[in-house]
């Protein structure tokens, strides 16, 4: 199942608070580090693990690799990205939580592959931006260069109850 929500400026800390890498204090839930996805991430040279400073920089409209401002207008927006959450059915989450190690690995790999495929589909079908040609003409919807996505795997709900899902913060490139 896919759910989509707006990600307001400064709300990325939810993703970063449970990550193993770069934590300054112990305790609490530890989840795997995030990873960069999407053709926009490739264009920007983002690959591998998502770190807090890189994600925060990107969400301010600045390329975390070069420091180049990607879009001046980004400083004026309140919604900096979209949170696309890909959730598995409860039975799959339970199998992932309680199954033998080899089954858990297969379930996780299948979930990650499905989340990437869903992102790819959205990128091909829905990566669009509104651009105004100027001169008083109305804005038009045009294809975007792709998504820059930070994917975070979560194994529990906030309850905490077994709930395998991936939160992917998408921003158009």
Write the topology of this structure.
Blueprint: E1 2-8, H1 13-16, E2 35-37, H2 39-44, H3 52-59, E3 79-87, H4 90-98, H5 101-126, E4 128-131, E5 140-143, E6 147-156, E7 162-172
Antiparallel strand pairs: 1-3, 2-6, 3-7, 4-5, 6-7
What does this structure look like?
There is one protein chain. The protein is of the alpha+beta class. It is built from 5 helices and 7 strands; from the N terminus they run βαβααβααββββ. The strands form 2 sheets. A 5-stranded antiparallel beta sheet has the order 1-3-7-6-2.
Core attributes:
173 residues, alpha+beta, five-stranded antiparallel sheet, two-stranded antiparallel sheet, 5 helices, elongated
Q: Find the count of extended strands (DSSP E, 2+ residues).
A: 7
Largest sheet: 5 strands, antiparallel
SSE ordering? EHEHHEHHEEEE
Q: In percent terms, what proportion of residues is strand?
A: 25-35%
> If you compute it from the alpha carbons, what radius of gyration comes out, rounded to the nearest whole angstrom?
17 Å
Please give the order of strands in the largest beta sheet: 1-3-7-6-2
Q: If helices are DSSP runs of H or I spanning 4 or more residues, what is the number of helices?
A: 5
Low-confidence stretches: 23-27
Helix content: 25-40%
What is the mean pLDDT?
A: 86
The first-to-last residue Cα distance is: 25 Å
Based on secondary structure, the structural category is alpha+beta
């Amino acid at each position: 199942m896919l759910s989509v929500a707006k990600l307001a400026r400064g709300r990325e800390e939810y993703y970063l608070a449970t990550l193993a890498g770069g934590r300054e204090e112990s305790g609490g839930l530890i989840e795997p580090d995030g990873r960069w996805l999407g053709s926009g991430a490739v264009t920007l040279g983002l690959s591998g693990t998502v770190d807090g400073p890189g994600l925060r920089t990107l969400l301010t409209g600045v390329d975390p690799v070069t420091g180049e401002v990607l879009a001046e207008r980004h400083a004026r927006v309140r919604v900096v990205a979209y949170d696309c959450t890909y959730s598995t059915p409860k039975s799959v989450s339970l199998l992932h939580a309680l199954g033998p190690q080899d089954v858990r690995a297969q379930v996780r790999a299948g979930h990650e592959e499905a989340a990437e495929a869903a992102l790819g589909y959205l990128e091909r079908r829905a990566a669009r931006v509104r651009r105004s040609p100027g001169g008083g003409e109305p804005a038009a919807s045009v294809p975007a260069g792709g998504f820059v996505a930070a994917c975070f795997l979560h194994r529990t709900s906030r309850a905490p109850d077994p709930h395998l899902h991936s939160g992917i913060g998408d921003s158009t490139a």
